Each structure stands twice: as C-alpha cells, then as structure tokens.
Amino acid sequence: MAISSPHTYRVAVVQQPPVLLDRSASLERALATIDEAVGGGAQLVTFPEAYLPGYPEYIWRLLPGTDYDLSRELHGRLVANAVDLASDDLLPIREAARRHGIVVIIGIHERDAAFSRATLYNTLVTIGPDGSILNRHRKLVPTNPERMVWAPGDASGLRVVETPLGRVGGLICWENYMPLARFALYAQGVQLYVASTWDEGEVWLATMRHIAAEGRCWVLGSGCSIRASDIPAWFPERDRLYPDPDEWLNPGDSVIVAPGGAVVAGPLHAEHGILYADCDPAAADAGHYTLDAAGHYNRPDIFSLTVQRAGATQIVFDDGAAGPARLAGDVPFVEAGAAAAPPRPDVRPAERQRV
User: How far apart are CA 288 and CA 259, in angstroms?
Assistant: First the structure.
C-alpha cells in the first residue's frame, strides 16, 4: 500500500450493494471489495449503513396490517442472517483487515448475544489494522419504520478511537442531524468522521459539507447504492414490491469532504463504485485554528453536555456460591487472533486487555 506522503493516507468509500438478507454472500462481496480497495491504495475502507446483510429498504414499502405476514417472514430471515459479535461473525472481515494492515469500518445488523438473542441493533463497527474490534457504536435512534427492526442504542460506543491514520469516529444516518451527537465526536478530537448512511440527496450532501466545516474534520459520507435489479430473485413478492428493475432504490451519493467543507471526491450518484481520496489528518488539526466547536469556539461557562456512556443494565445474573454476580455479556473485546467473544462497549480502547 503506497503512501503519497508521510502524513497522507488513502481512504476508500465503498458504494456497492450487498446481497440482501444473505450474510455469507454479503461477506464474500465485502471481502472482494476490500481487496479491490487495497489494490487502489486504500488504508481505510468504509462500508454503508447496515451493509451486513443489507439495509431493509422493504420496510418503507410494506403496509401495516396488510403485509404483516410478509414483514414477519422477512424479519425472521434478517435475524437469522444478522451479525453476532459473540460468535465472531465478523472474523473474515477482521482477518482481511489484519492481512492488509488496514482500518475497516462497516455497518451491520447486530444480533444481541447477551439479552434475548432476538433483538437487533443498527451498528457501526470499527476494526483496526491488527484485526481487533476498536469500537462498536449502536444507532441511538432508529428512524421512522426502522423502529420495527432495530432497538435504540446507547452511548457506550459514542467514541473516537486512535488509529495509525488518525482519530476515527462515526455516526449512522440521521444521527448526523443530531447536534449533540456530533459535538460528542468533536470534543474527542475526531479527524476522520465517517457518516455511514441510507440517506441521499442535496440536503444530505449539504449536511456532509456542513459537518466538515463545523467539525474541521475529514468527512466520509458512505452511502448505499442499490437498484431493484439488485434484490435477490428469491425475495418474496419481489415483483409486487419492485416492479421496475431499473428503479434506483437508493442512488448512493457517497462523498468525501475535506476539513472546511470542500468536496474532494464524489458525490457518486446512481452508480456502483468506490470513491478514493488522500487525507492528511493534520489538516483537521490545522483547520481548528479559526473554528474549534468543542474548544476555543465554545463557551463551557454557558453550555455543557453530559454523555451517559454506561447505559442501562437489563439483567444481572447472581451465581451465588458458584461465583460473583456478573452482567450478561461481561467479557472483553474481540482481539486479533483471539477466541470469539462479544465486545465490551463500556471499556475504553486504551483499557482493553488481550485475551
């Protein structure tokens, strides 16, 4: 992987559709795309919101009541193909990141391994160049009919993590319209800001430029392009829901924006592909000379923000004489080369221990 200068790193924003509701096939497609991006010199690769196993676009078409049986059938398949971090379903992606020595950021449907095993979260996972999971962020507020698919997340993953390419953080779709969520990332010194999304269009693109100007950071707007013809042939009632195979269900509109708001790549509209840009994280630091929303351009004597990262504990198992009480899922992050284990969102990356 060539680096154009000691301070510049090539990033890749993937705008390719997964194989909807098929985790295995989508993983294969993701691995092939990672190889392609690395061939283009990328040292950081981002995938769209809910890439594994695909954003459930059908929820915007199904009718309450009338389509209940179909909705239940599709949700059952989605749960079966969701990503269980406790079972290390991301192992192929982790191994690819380690093999290439790159950072990978990918959106997943996360199946909760600690509570009930039936609840899903819209999750953004950051994987380091050693293959370890650096962060797991669950979308705070699912949007509109998404609330029939995903539970709301907490702030345990509302973090910026240190990588060899700079400080990386991200939000999912309409979280990027939440000023306090953005502020939480600015306050942690984000240099590479990933906006993994299903949104698109002029307002979204204006938001990407606004964040780059407001946060003085590189913004990687990672959109999902998909046509009706990309829906698998087996999909129930496909012809009724998607009668026009040429319809763009989402045109993508992925974009890369430099600190200050200048577009340096994209937007990639109504086509599949990969966007590349060479990013210097030091440019984000220098950009704060005139505006630092969480620093010298803030008034902490007037405004303050508290982020409750601990989250709520749903259940505590007391094993009595067999051992101390423990929280469900009380195990470490998955590390490179380690046995499968669910991540500990309440532990900062610097506090992680290898298992």
Answer: 9
